[in-house]
Amino acid sequence: MEGYFEVHGVGALRLVPLTTDALTIGRAPGNELTVDSKLVSRLHALVERFPSGWTIRDLGSTNGTTVNGLPLREARLLRDGDRVGVGPARLLFHAPGQLSGTRTVGMEAPPPPPPLTRREQELVGVLCRPYVEGGVAFPEPPGVRALATALGVSESAVKKHLTNLYDKFGLVTNNERRRSRLAGEAVRRGAVGV
To answer: What is the pTM (predicted TM-score) of this model?
Structure first.
């Protein structure tokens, strides 16, 4: 197992494995780690895998997130044994085999981007602009309305193109972060210039 959380304080002890590159924590049933409490926001925190390890960040929750008893103000690298507080839940992070130092990891070249129509290329360009231009640590892609305005098309046309792009880039999950993942994947695979 690459990493997991022990979940304490909300019912029986349970283990939640980190099997994907991102894990959402919150009250809504669609989260990978659900904490059923009014003290927890619907989408409370995000745990993501990076080459350096797992990070956690609070997503603007009402009651905040703590790591080892300290309020989480920005994204933070998790270490084996860190204690994360989300409402009444106490999450104990485990990363078996985590090294104390850094290591060099070889990375495969990403696959080339899928063939895109002219309109899809324009949409990807506008969608990825916050990632390409930089300036913000964790940029959010524009919403459907902003994309439609920038491209001079209807919101339904943008939604149709986004659906096609999700399929082309192999993003089959249907969650709130899908546009962000599409933008990240488009940049990673070279569908837009960095």
So the answer is: 0.50
